[in-house]
Amino acid sequence: MRIRTFDEYQAAYNHSVEDPEGFWAEIAQEFQWRKPWKKVLQWNFEKAETKWFPGGKLNITENALDRNVRERPNYPAIIWEPNDPNEPSVTFTYKMLHEYVCRFANVLKSNGVQKGDRVCIYMPMVPELAVAVLACARIGAIHSVVFGGFSAQSIADRINDSACSIVITSDGASRGNKQIPMKDTVDDALIGCPTVKKVIVLTHTRTAVSMLKGRDVWWEAEMKQVTSDCPAEEMDAEDPLFILYTSGSTGKPKGVVHTCGGYMVFAAYTFQNVFQYEPGDIHFCTADIGWITGHSYIVYGPLLTGATSLMFEGVPTYPDAGRFWDIVDKHKVNILYTAPTAIRSLMGFGLQPLEGKDLSSLRVLGSVGEPINEEAWHWYNEHIGKGNCPIVDTWWQTETGGILISPLAGITKTKPTYATLPLPGVQPILVDENGKEIEGNGVSGNLCIKFPWPGIIRTTWGDHERCRTNYFAAYPGLYFTGDGCLRDEDGYYRITGRVDDVLNVSGHRIGTAEVENAINMHTGVVESAVVGYPHDIKGQGIYAYVITESDPDHEVDLIRRDILATVSRIIGPIAKPDKIQFVKGLPKTRSGKIMRRILRKIAEGDVSNLGDTSTLLDPSVVDDIKSGALVEV
Ligand code: 6R9
Prior knowledge:
Layout: H1 6-18, H2 20-28, E1 41-44, E2 49-52, E3 57-58, H3 60-71, E4 76-81, E5 90-93, H4 94-110, E6 118-122, H5 127-139, E7 142-145, H6 152-161, E8 166-170, E9 172-175, E10 178-181, H7 183-190, E11 198-202, E12 216-218, H8 219-224, E13 235-236, E14 240-246, E15 254-259, H9 260-275, E16 282-285, H10 292-305, E17 308-312, H11 323-331, E18 335-338, H12 340-347, E19 364-368, H13 374-384, E20 391-394, E21 428-431, E22 443-449, E23 459-460, H14 464-472, E24 479-487, E25 493-498, E26 502-505, E27 508-511, H15 512-520, E28 525-535, E29 539-548, H16 556-570, E30 579-582, H17 596-604, H18 620-627
Parallel strand pairs: 4-17, 6-7, 6-8, 7-14, 8-11, 11-12, 16-17, 16-18, 18-19, 19-20, 29-30
Antiparallel strand pairs: 1-2, 3-13, 4-5, 9-10, 14-15, 15-23, 21-22, 22-24, 24-25, 26-27, 28-29
Bound molecules: ligand 6R9.
């Protein structure tokens, strides 16, 4: 599956278009299957149905663990770097990780978890998080990891949506100089979760926690009760492997479902080719396992490759803004994969944090999560890569399972701010508003994909129709990404950002509707409208226009603070608006639709050219909003 030159890239690309099934079957054969598949691919985009390798039987952990235990038992699988640099880092070889996963898989079994059950995981970035994920996969339970920054309410919503029977958590998390309670938050969530019968609690920060008799058990005590012998469950390629919730333009987050066979093939294929992993390399992905990037490029992609994955518990600015560079130096990191937000925030500290840090081990730099601006690209290239490391700007989504458009490190010629070319096996197409293909180069449009790849979303948990309408209905016969895109004269792709009501704040996806619903829960709020605006560090900031029952003139700051607290409680701190403007009315059309285009322009500070406002019910609200706009001049 490994492509090593640009000629090979082009040959592989052509092969993948001419004979997609043959192309993917060859790659899939490199894995360990218990029984061969009956068909390579069955698909129908009109119905949002895709099956890869149906009838094939496997267990992803036999490929990620057992195979490596046979081939390289003492090779490091996971290196864990703790939040506190004075504490020792920990290395798990493939043999140790295999044993740990099997033992914990037996703990899950002894607590009643069976194949097909949903397991919620809410944990800090400790090795046990990866162990919990893999233990679920070992016994065929479906993991649903919830990012540690989400609120009790968000955890409860996710648990209830997929009826999880068990939660795995820890007493607390260490992030920078803060200790964050986790079990406490889970306890709050579980008040509203009747399906949860058990909670397994890892001891990590030694924060005091309440342990409910009959429901809550300690990780460490349970581990002593079981053996480390746990044969892997036989799974069909199309059995669900995990659910990961992500925001869309409407309603609550949806549970994106990925399956065992296709996801395995795609995570490993993309990891190997994009990063050009070589045995001995240390791969450091700075994402949290609570996001898709962590699933695919901290856990599954690297382990399926027999690679060494470095997992970091803390934050880039603790104990100081040189922490990433300390880690690169200390562990001789070869591949660094991070987000533009982190680069921009570290750029703000200047070059001093880089002094005395040896970054010469670095070979490949990756970027993910949001468009990377020119300035950040050059800083990353010059000051971190010293002009010697290819930058792979990887475009993909929770729904795509793995990278779709990206340079292959050292093989594809890069261009600042461009994700460049599709991986072999990926067929992008640009369409206009009416779904008509925009052909040729030097054009832009909405980005769609016209043929399935093995990592494509299979369904949204419990609501297949939602999957169909969200991704396959806008342009019949195509998968619609929600992103706008430019294809330049060289045929290179540059993703320009979402064209729907999804915000991307510091690389985190947040739906405007979700934030509005949370704001509207605050007492005295009548209505609100949320839009994104350009933010120097976060990429996008959240701007909220809020109508309150009474005139907030005297207590603006207090109400603002309370609204922020409400949003934190309902969703989590990542969804807190950066700006809240109190308004008397919102610009609505006669049919009652909010004209967000106008609100976006005002939030961007571009009030001179608001376009046609004649269809508004009451055009005067626009002047009112303009006069109170919270924009720096
Ligand atoms: C992997 C991940 C997906 C959305 C996606 C797009 C944006 C991701 C990008 C990028 C420009 C890149 N996005 N990578 N935009 N260049 N290299 O981030 O998944 O959290 O689901 O977000 O992020 O807008 O549609 P997810």
